């Protein structure tokens, strides 16, 4: 299985830290945030990784190179301007191939990767869900008996870690678009499975949460 890391965002919520540095390269416990993802993927035996880049893309490419330092083969999908999550994935599909792939949001920290075997049958996605953090108490989706739905309870938060089948984006026009509506449509068709992860997860969306994560991992 290949993996894709979403790293093309502008990092507006992280300003002023991202005024001159793309968010994936912000340091956490002595290494770039994206470096933690790359190390975890290598430990999981996933060695082909696609990274979409746009904002200060040259810095990311220069810092990570071909991935040999991490024991990986890195491929870059360059976007002239950010294409949002869905558009970024669609542009990268020629690099990802026709098989399901692991998708990781570059601005989360999660001490877990799902088993590729979790995506089964006709499902188009498998989502990792976590307990709702203080800044997102309403959650995103409901999880019942391993199935994810837009409505219902209890509600959990999407961790930004998933397994995606390319068919989820089949026939969608090119350009910038969000992934969430496609996921919700697949949920309505009962084509999305999920699991509840209760370990360490952080949405590294603000300088304060970045600092807290850095302090936790540095001790």
From TrEMBL:
Keywords: Nucleotidyltransferase, Transferase
Pfam family, one: NTP_transferase
Gene3D superfamilies named in the record: Spore Coat Polysaccharide Biosynthesis Protein SpsA, Chain A
Segments forming domain Nucleotidyl transferase: 2-117
A GO molecular-function annotation: nucleotidyltransferase activity
Keyword Chloroplast in annotation: no
Highest taxon above the source species: Bacteria
Protein name: MurNAc alpha-1-phosphate uridylyltransferase
UniProt organism field: Vreelandella songnenensis
């Amino acid at each position: 299985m290949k993996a894709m890391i979403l790293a093309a965002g502008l990092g507006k919520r992280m300003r002023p830290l991202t005024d001159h540095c793309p968010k994936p390269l912000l340091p956490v416990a002595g290494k770039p945030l994206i470096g933690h993802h790359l190390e975890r993927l290598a430990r999981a035996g996933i060695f082909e990784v696609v990274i979409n880049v746009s904002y200060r893309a040259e810095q990311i490419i220069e810092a990570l190179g071909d991935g040999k330092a991490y024991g990986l083969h890195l491929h870059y999908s360059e976007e002239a301007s950010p294409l949002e999550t869905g558009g970024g994935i669609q542009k990268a599909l020629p690099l990802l191939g026709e098989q399901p792939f692991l998708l990781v949001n570059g601005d989360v920290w999660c001490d877990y990767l799902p088993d590729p075997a979790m995506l089964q049958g006709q499902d188009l996605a498998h989502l990792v869900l976590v307990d709702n953090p203080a800044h997102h108490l309403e959650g995103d989706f409901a999880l019942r008996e391993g199935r994810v739905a837009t409505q219902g309870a209890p509600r959990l938060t999407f961790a930004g870690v998933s397994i995606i089948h390319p068919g989820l984006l089949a026939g969608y026009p090119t350009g910038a678009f969000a992934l969430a509506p496609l996921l919700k449509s697949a949920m309505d068709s009962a084509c999305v499975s999920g699991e509840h992860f209760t370990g360490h997860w952080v949405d590294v969306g603000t300088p304060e949460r970045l600092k807290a994560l850095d302090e936790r991992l540095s001790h």
